[in-house]
Structure formats: structure tokens, C-alpha cells
Design brief:
174 residues; alpha+beta; Arc Repressor Mutant, subunit A; WH-like_DNA-bd_sf; Lrp/AsnC family transcriptional regulator of ectoine degradation; transcription regulation
């Protein structure tokens, strides 16, 4: 029996296929919470026979609505770690300044998320690393690279309060 792995729902595509219907959303919702569900069980859950369900799933993948599959890993099982968010302001605001900073972020494996912001800060950066010293060494290296950091503010996560898939029905206007 084939198995579908957990979907990275937070990466739902911005350009809609045509329009997702209730069954498409049911497939996505189910995969967000039960990524290893079998195709047969997925079909039963959303009220379809297996072949039409699999065809819809393939269509969602081709359209880029489903951008990947993966597992949620319990980081504590891997070893000690710290999750850090940093807000970043750049010295300059030309296209080249943004490209230089973004390229530097792409090179760092401990940087797990970067979002460009509108408002007071230019970026929000998520870092997962072994400890505060590792984070500081990373920051020191970035400052030595002269990638245009004007200032950064560090926020250390003390506990995870909520982690949930996106509100698909709400986003679809249902």
C-alpha cells in the first residue's frame, strides 16, 4: 500500500490552480495533519475512490500547491539546540544590498527561515543552532563579511506555544 508523507503545508503556492474546491482542501487538510496516510485511507477520508483522489493529489503537486513532503523532527532527540529569531536592519536599501544579504543567508545551514518585511525592520531571520555561542559566532562571521548589517535584535525562543498548519479553509474564502 503506497503511503503519502507529511506535507509542508506552510509552503502552499501563492498562484491558485484555478480554484481549489472542498475536496482539494480536504485532501490538503488531511495531509497537513496525517502525512503518512495511505492513498486508500486518504480517499475514504475525503469521500473519493482511490484513483480520482490520487489524480487530484497529482494535480495539486503539478500545480505547485503541494511544494514538498517531509517529516517533523523532534529536535530534542537530535541534541541540545536553541531556536532564535532575529530582526535585521540593513545599512543600505538598494537591490544589491538585499541580494547580498539574502545570498549570505542562503549559505548558512543554521538559518532555517528568512522573511523580508515591510515596516521598521528589513528581515526576520529564524536560526536553529546548538547554543548561544554558536549563534554569536555566526553573527560575528556575518559582521566580518560586511554584508550590510546595520543592526540586529535577537529573540531566544524559551518554549513553543503553538505550531499548526495554515488555515486553508479561511485562506480559500470558505
Amino acid at each position: 500500500m503506497a503511503t503519502v508523507r507529511r506535507i509542508w503545508c506552510c509552503r502552499v503556492c501563492y498562484k491558485p490552480m484555478q480554484r481549489l474546491d472542498a475536496r482539494d482542501l480536504a485532501i490538503l487538510r488531511t495531509l497537513c495533519t496525517e502525512g503518512r496516510i495511505s492513498k486508500t485511507d486518504l480517499a475514504a477520508r475525503v469521500g473519493l475512490s482511490p484513483t480520482p483522489c490520487w489524480e487530484r493529489l497529482a494535480k495539486l503537486e503539478r500545480a505547485g500547491v503541494i511544494q514538498g513532503y517531509g517529516a517533523q523532527v523532534a529536535l530534542r532527540a537530535i541534541g541540545p539546540h536553541v531556536v532564535i529569531f532575529a530582526t535585521v536592519e540593513l545599512d543600505g536599501h538598494r537591490a544589491e544590498d538585499f541580494r547580498r544579504f539574502e545570498a549570505a543567508m542562503q549559505r548558512l545551514p543554521e538559518v532555517t527561515g528568512v522573511w523580508a518585511l515591510g515596516g521598521g525592520f528589513d528581515y526576520l531571520v529564524q536560526v536553529i543552532t546548538r547554543d548561544i555561542d554558536s549563534y554569536q559566532r555566526m553573527i560575528d562571521g556575518l559582521l566580518e563579511e560586511e554584508i550590510g548589517l546595520a543592526r540586529y535584535y535577537t529573540y531566544i525562543v524559551t518554549k513553543s506555544v503553538k505550531s499548526a498548519p495554515p488555515p486553508l479553509d479561511f485562506l480559500a474564502g470558505l
